[in-house]
Design brief:
Helix content: 40-55%
CATH topology of the largest domain: D-Maltodextrin-Binding Protein, domain 2
Mean pLDDT: 83
GO molecular function, one term: DNA-binding transcription factor activity
Radius of gyration: 23 Å
Keywords: DNA-binding, Transcription, Transcription regulation
Pfam family, one: HTH_1
CATH superfamily of the largest domain: Periplasmic binding protein-like II
Distance between the termini: 57 Å
InterPro entries: LysR_HTH_N, LysR_subst-bd, WH-like_DNA-bd_sf, WH_DNA-bd_sf
Organism: Ruegeria marisrubri
Strand order of the largest sheet: 4-3-5-12-6
Length: 297
DNA sequence: TCTTGCCTAAGAGGGCGACC
DNA sequence: GGTCGCCCTCTTAGGCAAGA
């Protein structure tokens, strides 16, 4: 028997989950069925692809090679199926999106109209921090990636699609709330709450501090935007957040945006994809739907 | 000791081609 | 068209080993 797409798909899932059992759950199979498919693939290729050390599964060097090819082959087949479906006017397919957590305030509002316009396209949305997104990008696990800043080292094609202004937020009862024309010196001694290391928002905040020669004390680092906003709201300090992610809190008065020279910092949301990747029709349709760069305000 | 997860064996079910 | 046999894919059952 030749290598089958089924075997490659199952092997890819095992490699991604690091477990036969979890792969089986994901594929709605039993663990022995998954094991058997991978074993057949190994027998056909006459080389072990997975080695077990203790209870942990690890890919062999051959396994890594096969995994890379499996991803390419399966992506190509999926793309082919969607293109053929497109030719038939069926508009069926799947769009896998991975977004940084702060983009979850922006993307769902765009997915609604897209989904209504393309009812045959299934959408898989993964939300993670920047580090997780870059890991998925490296593994080519999704069609498109939404993030604030695209690292220069990333082998990516990208384009900005929307403005993403950053503002300094404070609790409504904060002494600086409502004051006009504040400068960097006014916040130089204010305690700040930072996002986790690697966060684009944090990088922009630190750049502002450096450029203005200030070093506000950092009271805590939090990994989730909600936690940051809650900490600010309870008066633990100031923070810099995407205006879009704090829209509701600003509207309801739970938080206030401070009027500080240099803010809002104008950044953009970017959509990126691996350089050279052949985008599926679904991904191309979503790209088309995102506002082009020249319309960004 | 118990739990979890890998692995094997045996067998069921369904697809498919060959044959009548 | 119906039957048979082969093969693939899957499930269940159970053994075994590692880790908590």
């Amino acid at each position: 028997m030749p290598v089958t797409l089924r075997q490659l798909d199952i092997f890819r899932t095992v490699a991604r989950t690091g477990s036969y059992t979890r792969a089986a759950e994901e594929l709605h199979l039993t663990q022995p069925a998954v094991f058997a498919q991978v074993r057949q693939l190994e027998e056909h290729l006459q080389t072990p692809l997975i080695e077990r050390i203790g209870k942990m599964l690890h890919l062999t060097v051959a396994g890594e090679t096969v995994l890379a090819s499996a991803r390419t082959i399966l992506d190509e087949v999926a793309s082919l199926e969607m293109r053929l479906a497109d030719l038939k006017g069926l508009k069926r397919g799947r769009l896998a999106l991975c977004i940084v957590s702060t983009a979850k305030y922006d993307i769902p509002g765009r997915l609604g109209p897209f989904s209504r316009a393309n009812p045959g396209i299934d959408i898989a949305l993964t939300v993670g921090n920047r580090e997780e997104l870059l890991a998925r990008f490296a593994a080519n696990e999704d069609d498109l990636y939404i993030l604030g800043t695209v690292p220069e080292t990333l082998q990516a094609e990208w384009r900005p699609y929307a403005a993403n202004p950053l503002v300094v937020v404070a609790a409504p009862e904060h002494r600086l709330a409502g004051r006009k024309g504040l400068g960097p010196e006014d916040i130089a001694s204010e305690p700040f709450i930072l996002r986790e290391s690697g966060s684009g928002t944090r990088a922009a905040m630190e750049r502002y501090f450096d450029e203005n020669g200030i070093a506000p004390p950092v009271t805590m680092e939090l990994g989730a935007n909600e936690a940051v906003k809650e900490a600010v709201r309870t008066g633990l300090g100031l923070s810099v957040v995407s205006r879009g992610s704090a829209e509701l809190e600003l509207e309801t008065g739970r938080l206030v945006a401070l009027d500080i020279k240099g803010f809002p910092i104008l950044r953009h949301w970017h959509v990126a994809w691996p350089r050279g990747k052949r985008l599926s029709p679904a991904a191309e349709a979503f790209l088309d739907m995102l506002a082009p760069e020249q319309e960004i305000v």
